[in-house]
Amino acid sequence: MNWNYRIVNCKSENGGDDWYCLQEVFYDSKGKPTSYSDPSTGSEDMESLKWVFEKINMAMTKLPLQEEDFK
To answer: What is the H or E stretch that residue 47 is in?
Structure first.
């Protein structure tokens, strides 16, 4: 299973209004998003945290996913 950081528009968490969250998104073998976790920005050391922020920056270059993408 592959994963990456993506921005997900979680409208259900904001009464139907846009609410953009950084999420860990998981994909099936065909590349379809299947689930996402709670926002995560922590790491066990500074070098790993640097890697996390690089991945977050990559997520900011892609279009947001919608909650409906996971159904």
So the answer is: helix 46-59
Question: Other CB atoms closer than 10 Å to residue 35's CB: what's the count?
Answer: 13
Residues 6+ apart with CB under 8 A from 44: none
> Which amino acid would we find at residue 56?
I
User: pTM of the prediction?
Assistant: 0.67
- Coil, helix or strand at residue 6: strand
CA nearest 58: which of 11, 27, 10, 22?
Answer: 22
Which residues of the chain are modeled with pLDDT < 50? none
Which residues are within 8 A (CB) of 38 and not within 5 positions of it... i.e. 6 or more apart?
A: 23
Q: Are 44 and 29 in contact (CB under 8 A)?
A: no
How many degrees, rounded to 5, is the angle at CA 33 between CA 28 and CA 38? 115
